[in-house]
Amino acid sequence: MFGNLVYGKFSLKETFWKFGVLGVFFCTLITKIFKTFLLQKLNGMTISYYYTHYFSPLNMDNMILFLTIGYFVCLLALALYSIMVLFGVWRSSAEYDKSVWMRHIARILTLLIVYCGLKFVL
Q: What CA–CA distance (Å, rounded) separates 34 from 119?
């Protein structure tokens, strides 16, 4: 399925709405949930400050470690999924023959959606 997405085998409508809008929104939501729980557990500290000043392997808080790993895995998955969606929309819009305007609007909006999703999480 992801191979078909990357190579633009789906229609532009399906690629843009299903994978672009809904998929990026879902991945962003999951990542934001992990980030919110992590920041709540850290009491306002940043992740780097916690791991450079308070983290001790002998007395570590397992929940903070789990939330940090979950956050970074979700962030990596969001970044990789966004790249796949960009390739998919770009390639399926190249095949779109009905309107040149819709082709370019889909590309611009996909760039905007991915940017806003990553900006919201970081």
A: 15
Name the phi and psi angles at 60, rounded to 5. -85, 150
- What are the structure tokens assigned to 50, written together? 């916690």
Alpha carbon of residue 14 to chain centroid: 18
Q: What is the mean pLDDT of each run of 10 residues along the chain (122 residues)?
A: 84 89 94 93 86 82 89 94 91 85 88 87 80
C-alpha–C-alpha distance, residues 67 and 46, integer Å: 13
Q: Which residues contact 114 (CB under 8 A, 6 or more apart)?
A: 24, 82, 85, 86
119 alpha-carbon distance from chain centroid: 10
Residue located via tokens 């909006």: 109
Domain residue ranges in the chain: 9-121
CA–CA dist 15, 72 (Å, integer)? 26
pLDDT at 58: 80
pLDDT number for residue 72:
93
